[in-house]
Amino acid sequence: MDNFDFNTEEHSNRTALLFLAAIVSFVLGALLWPYIVNSWFEYFNVGYRLVWWQGGILAFVPLVGKLTIPLAIVTFILMSTL
């Protein structure tokens, strides 16, 4: 059993950081994705609305999650000029 070296404190810290990253990702998605999608829906006169929990789920899609903040900035700029 001497070869088994499992540092539970280090494992706990990693788990806490991953959990924190997931929470932050969900909150950013819940705030920004409804803004992005609903702004464009309003621009194109589409009746559907995206709600906060759908935006939070969208933040967990790998490529979509990385595009959240840049698309929010682009949407803000375009909506303020249109």
Please tag this protein with its features:
elongated, 4 helices, 76% helix, 82 residues, mainly alpha
Description:
With 82 residues, the protein is mainly alpha-helical. 76% of the residues lie in helices and 0% in strands. The chain is built from 4 helices and no strands. Helix 1 packs across helix 2 and helix 1 packs parallel to helix 4. The radius of gyration is 19 Å and the shape is elongated. 12% of the residues are buried.
Share in β-strands: under 5%
Series of H and E elements: HHHH
Shape estimate: elongated
Q: Please state the structural category.
A: mainly alpha
Helix content: over 70%
Mean pLDDT: 89
Task: Give the assembly state of these chains.
Answer: single chain
Query: Count of helices?
Result: 4
Task: Report a brief summary of the structure.
The protein has 82 residues and is mainly alpha-helical. It has one domain (8-81). It has four helices and no strands.
What is the fold's blueprint, element by element?
Elements (H helix, E strand, L loop, with lengths): L7 H36 L8 H7 L3 H5 L1 H14 L1
